[in-house]
């Protein structure tokens, strides 16, 4: 087994980002959220006690918002080799 962990960002750092860097956030319907909407959402997450925003769908978070990990079957990462016929 191996553990997959989602990337997370510190909410306070996201709140301090310039408006142009917050253009990557979207609403649930897929449309772009305004920087003020993003900051309002982030502040609401802080109010709930979260310190981090996990990127992507994560159903296993710590109380502060970090991904707590997801166990998955281990994959074989060995490089494949082939013998040359002479």
Topology readout:
Elements: E1 2-4, E2 8-10, H1 11-15, H2 35-47, E3 52-54, E4 70-72
Antiparallel strand pairs: 1-4, 2-3
Structural features:
globular; about 90 residues; disordered C terminus; two-stranded antiparallel sheet; alpha+beta
What does this protein structure show overall?
The protein is built from two helices and four strands, in the order ββααββ. The chain has 86 residues and is of the alpha+beta class. It has one domain. The strands form two sheets. The chain has a two-stranded antiparallel sheet with strand order 1-4. Strands 2-3 form a two-stranded antiparallel sheet.
State the helix count. 2
Mean pLDDT across all amino acids = 86
**Which parts are unreliable, with pLDDT below 50 for 5 consecutive residues or more?**
79-86
Question: Roughly what percent helix?
Answer: 10-25%
Main β-sheet, spatial strand arrangement: 1-4
Q: Determine the structural class based on helices, strands and strand pairing.
A: alpha+beta
Kindly report how far apart the N and C termini lie: 39 Å
Shape, principal axes of CA atoms: globular
Secondary structure: number of strands? 4
Element order: H for helix, E for strand:
EEHHEE
Radius of gyration: 19 Å
Strand coverage percent: 5-15%
Count of the domains: 1
Main beta sheet strand tally, sense and closure: 2 strands, antiparallel
């Amino acid at each position: 087994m191996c553990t997959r962990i989602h990337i997370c960002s510190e909410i306070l750092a996201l709140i301090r980002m310039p408006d142009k860097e917050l253009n990557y956030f979207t609403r649930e319907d897929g449309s772009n959220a305004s920087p003020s909407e993003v900051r309002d959402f982030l502040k609401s997450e802080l109010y709930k006690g979260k310190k981090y925003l996990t990127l992507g769908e994560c159903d296993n978070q710590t109380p502060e918002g970090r991904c707590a990990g997801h166990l998955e079957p281990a994959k074989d990462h060995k490089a494949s080799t082939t013998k040359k016929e002479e």
